[in-house]
Design brief:
The chain has about 300 residues and is mostly helical. Helix content is about 80%, strand content about 0%.
Length: about 300
């Protein structure tokens, strides 16, 4: 006779693990105080690095903070977290929760089989749990790199427009510093917000604004942002006219982006060939099989 209590407990634990995994995969809700601080450009809080903006918020961030305090960074993807403005503790907490769920999933399956009077050796679910935990752990790395790649593409598109705007400001006889600030003030997206924050940090740190942009480009892994920094540095240090150079750089960047988008579109079209061909073959067999079966049997 099947014991009900172990089966109910195993099912409850499995449901809780699934809920934790789904919650870990969903994007975290931004803290209201951090959002309001970023909207208020007059506050000094906007110059603080995003990784230091919050302490423990929620279970995942507390878990991540504990892991960071005991084991260090564990090879965190700093650039990916920086461009996504994701808290390292929160992301690491989600990663640990997903890995623990992968570790417990085979064990829960073994408990269900044991409740059905079909016990399984502990070695099999234990080894499978280790494999699942490792797979889920690295899947979180793959996911954040995909999100960061999408954010970098959006950043590069915005940088092309920023180059055009800086060139127009320089053509209107604006100084190098003023050109960078005025061009950054035009846009209202998150990319221009990051550029404005970088310029503000550079101003408060007493360094040149192009050095602030260069630091941001290295911080988030977008070298295209370093191009206007280098060009404007020449204008600021040597007084050279850089309008045509900025225009040429913007056209070149747009050409590269267009080529990448065409390559992605071609790749997507090639991937569609296999499912379409499989569907055609399946429909052909489904339609032709009855007729062929009648001919053979007649």
């Amino acid at each position: 006779m099947i014991s009900v209590v172990p089966a109910v407990l195993a099912g409850t634990a499995a449901g809780a693990g699934i809920a934790i995994a789904v919650a870990a995969a969903l994007p975290g809700r931004s803290d209201l105080g951090d959002v309001l601080a970023r909207l208020d450009a007059s506050r000094l809080d906007v110059i603080a690095p995003p990784t230091q903006a919050s302490t423990a918020h929620g279970v995942y961030e507390r878990i991540g903070s504990t892991v960071l305090a005991r084991f260090g960074t564990l090879g965190l993807p700093r650039r990916e977290l920086e461009i996504l403005r994701e808290s390292p503790a929160l992301w690491l907490g989600r990663k640990v929760a997903v890995a623990l769920y992968g570790l417990m999933l085979p064990l829960l399956g073994g408990a269900v089989l044991a409740a059905m009077n079909e016990p399984l050796s502990f070695t099999v679910p234990g080894a499978a749990g280790l494999v699942f935990a490792a797979v889920f752990w690295f899947l979180m790395d793959v996911r954040i790199r995909q999100l960061a790649a999408e954010a970098r593409l959006e950043f590069r598109v915005a940088v092309a427009s920023y180059l055009e705007l800086v060139g127009l400001e320089r053509a209107a006889d604006a100084g190098p510093t003023e050109a960078l600030k005025r061009a950054a003030a035009v846009g209202d997206g998150w990319v221009f917000e990051r550029i404005r924050d970088a310029l503000l940090r550079a101003e408060l740190a007493g360094i040149a604004p192009w050095d602030g942009l260069r630091h941001l480009s290295q911080e988030i892994g977008v070298p295209e942002l370093g191009a206007p920094a280098d060009i404007i540095a020449v204008a600021g240090e040597e007084g050279a006219s850089v309008h045509s150079t900025l225009q040429a750089q913007a056209r070149s960047l747009r050409g590269v982006l267009l080529t990448d988008q065409q390559a992605q579109a071609n790749t997507a079209s090639e991937k569609m060939v296999v499912p379409v061909a499989a569907l055609v073959i399946l429909m052909t067999v489904y339609i032709a099989y009855p007729a062929i079966a009648r001919i053979i049997n007649s």
